[in-house]
Amino acid sequence: MNKVISKQELEEKIIEALKTCYDPEIPVDIFELGLIYEILIDDDYNVEIRMTLTSPACPVAGSLPGEVELTIRDIPEVNNVKVSLVWNPPWDRDMMSEVAKLELGFL
Questions:
Q1: Does the pTM exceed 0.85?
Q2: Residue 38 — φ and ψ, nearest 5°?
Q3: Distance separating alpha carbons of residues 56 and 71, to the nearest angstrom
Q4: Domain positions in the chain
Q5: CATH number 1.10.10.10 given to 8-91
Q6: In this predicted model, what pLDDT tens digit does every residue of 47-90 receive, in sequence order?
């Protein structure tokens, strides 16, 4: 681990990193889309991301969780990363941020 930072600072770095990952069918990052349900950071700076996809049949179901894991693993302060796909609650448009809704013309 490089520099000691707070869990809150690490969470902010993780969110910024997640904003570089996109669902290829929708031109909005996965964080603004509401696909990230939970970011858990333990005392040893191991990170678990609980995320979903727009649907279980999403064509990137096999690749997007791995991309998320690699993206978070690149953050120097992170020790280990686990990405869990969850389907409950099911994703819907209401989970998108205002930014995403504006970008997609839903507002």
A1: yes
A2: -155, 140
A3: 22
A4: 8-91
A5: no
A6: 999 999 988 888 888 899 999 999 999 999 999 999 999 999 99
